[in-house]
Amino acid sequence: MSVARLTFVHAKYSLIETSRIPIAIIGSLVFPVLSLLFFVVPQRVVADDPLYATQAIISLSVFAVLANGLFSFGLGIAENREKAWDPYLRTLPAPGISRVLAHIFSTGLMALVSIIPVIVVGGLFTAASAPLPNVLAGFVALAISSLPFMLMGICVGYALPQKAAIAVVQVLMFGLAFGGGLFLPPILFADWLNTLSMFLPSRSAREIVVWAVQGGELPGWAVLGWAVWTAVTLVLALVLFRRDEGRRFR
């Protein structure tokens, strides 16, 4: 069986396994759209302004992929490491890359689904608007800019046991969301907080997706920040994966 076929089969059964716990899907769908309803829709100064409303929806879409990446990878890997099923899967004659790709595809699909309610509610209750080609470009930018969050989740999953991973993922999620300007526009930040925010991957992701949807000048520091975070978390994830493999499969 080819790697592509194995990846498809593994992704299919990962989605089936997730669907057996409906609250896991409901949580991913509801949290971002509730944030939109509580933080953006009642603020008519923001909701009635097309520029600010569109940026608010972009910020919460970034939050949706951030939360999915951290929880799906961080908690999923930490949980699997404590089950007997995971070591058994490693004994099967299938390359590890098929498992990694399957996890990325299944998590990416869940993240995409979680964005749809945000876009629908934003379209109905705010003045947000963007041409269709820009929206499609935003989806591509969102997929690319979500890489550091997925890799960060992998690092947490391979570095910590499940109970510790839950706490760390929650701290990372809210820290990156508030610090990256996903709940509060960076224009309202104090100077020192705005400077600190530029070093976070969530702020880089927000600026990249805003550029893809609304145009304008792409900040160089955002691209550089995304590249550095992606490279650092990728190297760290590989190191932690090898460490875990060395400990449990020596």
UniProtKB/TrEMBL annotation:
<feature type="transmembrane region" description="Helical">
    <location>
        <begin position="137"/>
        <end position="160"/>
    </location>
</feature>
<feature type="transmembrane region" description="Helical">
    <location>
        <begin position="21"/>
        <end position="41"/>
    </location>
</feature>
<feature type="transmembrane region" description="Helical">
    <location>
        <begin position="221"/>
        <end position="241"/>
    </location>
</feature>
<feature type="transmembrane region" description="Helical">
    <location>
        <begin position="167"/>
        <end position="189"/>
    </location>
</feature>
<dbReference type="InterPro" id="IPR000412">
    <property type="entry name" value="ABC_2_transport"/>
</dbReference>
<dbReference type="InterPro" id="IPR051784">
    <property type="entry name" value="Nod_factor_ABC_transporter"/>
</dbReference>
<feature type="transmembrane region" description="Helical">
    <location>
        <begin position="53"/>
        <end position="79"/>
    </location>
</feature>
<protein>
    <submittedName>
        <fullName>ABC transporter permease</fullName>
    </submittedName>
</protein>
<keyword id="KW-0812">Transmembrane</keyword>
<feature type="transmembrane region" description="Helical">
    <location>
        <begin position="100"/>
        <end position="125"/>
    </location>
</feature>
<keyword id="KW-0472">Membrane</keyword>
<keyword id="KW-1133">Transmembrane helix</keyword>
